[in-house]
Sequence to fold (358 residues):
Amino acid sequence: MSVWSSSLVVGWTVFSFALPAIAETVVLHAYKAELTGNLKLQDEKEDATIHFWNRGEDTITWKWTPAEPGSYTVELKYSFPPDIQKGKMSLTVGDQRIVAPTEATASWMDYRPFPLGVVKVDKAGEHSVVLQAAEMSSPPSPLPDVAWLSLTPTDAPATSESALPSPDFQGEPLFDGTTLNGWEGDLRYFRIEEGALVAGDLKEDIPSNQFLATTREYGDFELRFQARVWKGRANGGVQFRSHRVKDSSEMSGYQADCTPGLWGGVYDESRRGAFLGVRLNPEKIIEVVKPADWNHCVVRCEGPRMRLWVNDVLTFDYTETDESIPRSGFIGLQIHSGDPAEVAYKDIHIQELPSPKQ
Fold:
């Protein structure tokens, strides 16, 4: 905490003391944000505004270093005319997430500040502040044009939802540790060793991506597993809400990547062919991932929203806006094509969840 000093003279004795500085609001201007997708910055410098926020995967990201730990009220200044269908915005700070509905202003030219909620910061250092669509109208309509985001110290409790995995997890095993009951795939590339499913081959190149998949589908669920990437070039991942591609060894769908440098990201395998959303807490990921050892991962799917944790660090929080994409599918364990390599998976459990209310 920063301080300013003062002094008091009593007689000929000078008493010096320090008073805490008054914490001030921090304003993160549009021109300082990192933009992805269709987003564009208009105007110049502090008067700049962000436009063309019209896709679920587009992100507005600021870097913010709090003056000190504590709670902060978040406001977003934006414009959004009343004749546009309303959606919801997602604000992520560290491992916290706030979902806020869009409210109308008089026109696209009328910018007003709106409170999003309160976030709590437990430690000093740089934080990522990420804005993204949480829910878009159907058919998709634009989200607000943004001028700035502010954070003001407060004594109010945090209003963001918990970003930790469910504490009352009661999952059923998908792998019994000794057999491949409930799984199917090319067994030339998958075997059981010491209670783990080992994917790959250290003797020969792997000609194509291979997947060992469940024999039944899952929709809304929490999936927990451990993955170890430690031999060869090592590129793997766990598919979810995925399906086999006809006349191919491929699976199409979401993949929680288990690859050095890519841990915590979700790739849209054999569909859009790109990483989705933004990988959260990249600095923490580097700290917590254990090379050549087991890493604990959690995937949670609830309706269009999907989240991923690696060793208890939230790395992915994404809401799918394409209604044509299935919200159910198979679980699959991948070994990537290429040089000899092995990836292992174990302690695979799943708990099916009720579908969220619409």
